[in-house]
Amino acid sequence: MTFFSTRLGQFTYFAIQVDQPDWRGRNVLDFGGNIGKILEDPNCTIDHERYWCVDVAREAIDKGKASFPKSHWVFYDRYSFSFNPYGIPNLPVPELHQTFDYILAFSVFTNTTESDMLELVKQLQSRLAKNGVLAFTFLDPDYFPWPVKDPRSNFQWRVDLEIERGKCSAVQGAKLLERTKQADWFTLVNGHDLYIETDDIQSYPPEEQKTCYVFHTEKYMRSVFPHATILPPVNNEMQHCCIIKNT
After folding, report:
1. Percent of the chain predicted with pLDDT > 90
2. DSSP annotation of 78
3. Is the pLDDT of residue 1 over 70?
4. Which residues have C-beta within 8 Å of that of residue 175, sequence separation ≥ 6?
5. What are the structural domain ranges in the chain?
6. What b/e sequence results for 88-117 when a residue is b if at least 16 CB atoms lie within 10 Å of its CB, and e otherwise?
7. pLDDT by residue (tens digit) across 13-60?
8. Tell me, which fold does domain 10-139+221-245 have in CATH?
9. Residue 212 exposure: Cα atoms within 13 Å on the Cβ side
10. How many angstroms separate the CA atoms of 62 and 75, rounded?
11. Cα-flanking dihedrals φ and ψ of residue 5, to 5°?
């Protein structure tokens, strides 16, 4: 079943992170933009005809195109554990014959392997216009997004949700938390299978490829992208933002 995003607020999130609320006249690539919910943000200033959405879910692209016909919609048939298990591994980002002032990826590299993230970030950087900005999010497992109303870290929150959904037991959840205490990055597959600092994920039949959540500590992301600006979550979100500028 195709996932259709219902999240609002992506534009506000990125506008705060890049410290620029007015994007009129700017070319924007929403990488993994699903059905283009960013355009529905009440604060959005993106010109629809200057908006490109690339996503691995064909049905999401079709739905977005129907909702925003002036924008540009491109299906990207690349393999994705959760969202396109029959796709083509390592398929390059489509050639859009355009450079972009803003390239955004909200909650994309929270669902891909480490090697895919590094490869795709490099490809996306090559699509930036002069002075363009690439901004993408990541989940720091140790970050407490709502310390007053919900005193749980990002990873504790995820583990509790998987327990609630019956994907793992409370005992398994406690072991997951213990095993990841010193990890720089790790992947939680199908709510219970943990892979620490490795992309060597076992082969799952496509019908069993349900969820794949990747966590990176802020310290680790600073080491991987030393020239980037790493910012904490804003707009009541859980995810940090990595900003890379093409100067």
Report:
1. 96
2. B
3. no
4. none
5. 10-139+221-245, 154-214
6. eeeeebeeeeeebbbbbbbbbbbbbbbebb
7. 999 999 999 999 999 999 999 999 999 999 999 999 999 999 999 999
8. Rossmann fold (3.40.50)
9. 22
10. 9
11. -65, 140
The arithmetic mean of pLDDT across residues 212-228, rounded, is: 98
What six digits make up the tokens of 205? 């039949």
Read off the tokens for 15.
Answer: 């506008």
Radius of gyration of the chain (CA): 18
Q: What angle do CA 213, 60, 139 make, to 5 degrees?
A: 20
Is the model's pTM score more than 0.90? Answer: yes
214 CB-near residues (< 8 Å, 6+ apart): 109, 110, 111, 112, 113, 114, 117, 138, 139, 185, 186, 187, 188
> CA-to-CA distance for 148 and 112, rounded, in angstroms?
31
Distance CA 188, CA 79 (A): 18
